[in-house]
Amino acid sequence: MNLYESLAADIEDQVARGVLVEGDRLPSIRQASVHRALAISTVLRAYSLLESRGVIESRPQSGFFVRRKARAAPRKKETAPLVLSSEVDVSRLVLSTLRTIRTQGAAPLGSPYPDPAPFPWQRISQYAGAIARRQHNWSVMDDLPPGNPELIRQIARRHMENGLAVDPAEIVVTAGATEAINLCLQAVAKPGDTVAIESPTFYAMLHAIERMGMRALEVPTDPKTGIRIDALRTLLGQHRIAACMVMPNFQNPLGFMMPDAHKRELVELLARQDIPVIENAVYDELYYGDSHPTSLKNWDSKGLVLHCSSFSKSLAPSYRIGWALPGRYAAQVEKLKFLNTLATPSLPQLAIAEYLQHAGHDRLLRQVRKGYAQRARMMAAAVLRFFPPGTRVSEPQGGYVLWVELPDGADAMALYAKALERKITVGPGHMFSARGGYTHCIRLNYSYPWSAGTEQALRMLGRLVGEMLTPAARSKTR
């Protein structure tokens, strides 16, 4: 291949990959000559070749641009075949679902994220812009763990207002709750250790365990009261468990709020054996009742509760600011934060801190909670209306997800694949188990405004489930 042909091929490949898109300006002939160490005549010849192929076009006095192509009639997108195996790679399945939501514009019933529309991202961005204009001399020293002092003060203040007095010196700011969970798990367990988890459980917990080469021990979980303490007590006598990971409030995917007596019993059981418990509290602000729920931390007298939370579900999903209250492991978590990611950027921390100080966040949260509670009832009613008899749904006490148990004979992965063909996403139950369980369950997101499209998507899902059932299965559900 000649030099000009090689340059033309590189540019054409960048266009094909989407690095260069329609209307993008190419480097000038002189710039390309310098950057690629080619003669000007070689670059000119390459551009002329691309122009003859219709890839780029020249504009007088302006240069060369990626050509805008005539729009062909849209074609139906082909859906890649899925491997409907009981051995499901949870992380790949989650990533596949998220990519589908982003790239195909599918109904986001399978999304793990809240609808961003109600949250004040513009106002927080304005605070960030004002802070950036005031402060010009940013240094990595400003970002070092444990985090920005003003944000830490605001976090401690919110905990106090919600009924939990905490020591600000214990707080470590992280890049979202996911990092907080990973750091806390790394602080209390090592590769090869066994970690007790709820079943079903939020897949971020499974990702953390998988990433660190640990083993998950699934504990039966009641859909209304949480992890079964009698079952956990039995397993503690049979296995050497390094830590326990739970989501006591508005658990994803079941939506329950663990009763206070249950929380206290769990903390005391683990404390007797000096076993740390990592508490995922990302949905705590999204309660439907009259008051903020208690935390496992309320009953922690030995520093064994490592409380993890973030603003991603209740304030600023795109800012990825979270924190940990790691108890006796605070110094270790702070050190791991420094070793793993060095720091959390100051600007988003300061912007959120300023918003919390001045903007009346609680008023916004009351509106969000009211909307979620209403949609939870609407979603549950629609599922029971449109899905075959024998379908059962959870009773969320907070958050924005509904757990649906399908009738016998229905397969969640088959439903996932068929729904994708119709641009509808669901969260198949496989994602919430390390052993490939819950093959007949799905999780649905109801944070987005209710619409005719939502109802139509649920009606279609119900029809697809009905088509899976054999005549014998259909008669069994009646």
TrEMBL record:
<dbReference type="Pfam" id="PF00155">
    <property type="entry name" value="Aminotran_1_2"/>
</dbReference>
<keyword id="KW-0808">Transferase</keyword>
<dbReference type="Pfam" id="PF00392">
    <property type="entry name" value="GntR"/>
</dbReference>
<keyword id="KW-0805">Transcription regulation</keyword>
<keyword id="KW-0663">Pyridoxal phosphate</keyword>
<dbReference type="InterPro" id="IPR036388">
    <property type="entry name" value="WH-like_DNA-bd_sf"/>
</dbReference>
<dbReference type="GO" id="GO:0008483">
    <property type="term" value="F:transaminase activity"/>
</dbReference>
<dbReference type="InterPro" id="IPR036390">
    <property type="entry name" value="WH_DNA-bd_sf"/>
</dbReference>
<dbReference type="InterPro" id="IPR004839">
    <property type="entry name" value="Aminotransferase_I/II_large"/>
</dbReference>
<keyword id="KW-0238">DNA-binding</keyword>
<dbReference type="InterPro" id="IPR015422">
    <property type="entry name" value="PyrdxlP-dep_Trfase_small"/>
</dbReference>
<dbReference type="InterPro" id="IPR051446">
    <property type="entry name" value="HTH_trans_reg/aminotransferase"/>
</dbReference>
<feature type="domain" description="HTH gntR-type">
    <location>
        <begin position="1"/>
        <end position="69"/>
    </location>
</feature>
<dbReference type="InterPro" id="IPR015424">
    <property type="entry name" value="PyrdxlP-dep_Trfase"/>
</dbReference>
<dbReference type="GO" id="GO:0003700">
    <property type="term" value="F:DNA-binding transcription factor activity"/>
</dbReference>
<dbReference type="InterPro" id="IPR015421">
    <property type="entry name" value="PyrdxlP-dep_Trfase_major"/>
</dbReference>
<keyword id="KW-0032">Aminotransferase</keyword>
<keyword id="KW-0804">Transcription</keyword>
<dbReference type="GO" id="GO:0030170">
    <property type="term" value="F:pyridoxal phosphate binding"/>
</dbReference>
<dbReference type="GO" id="GO:0003677">
    <property type="term" value="F:DNA binding"/>
</dbReference>
<dbReference type="InterPro" id="IPR000524">
    <property type="entry name" value="Tscrpt_reg_HTH_GntR"/>
</dbReference>
<comment type="similarity">
    <text>In the C-terminal section; belongs to the class-I pyridoxal-phosphate-dependent aminotransferase family.</text>
</comment>
<protein>
    <submittedName>
        <fullName>Aminotransferase class I/II-fold pyridoxal phosphate-dependent enzyme</fullName>
    </submittedName>
</protein>
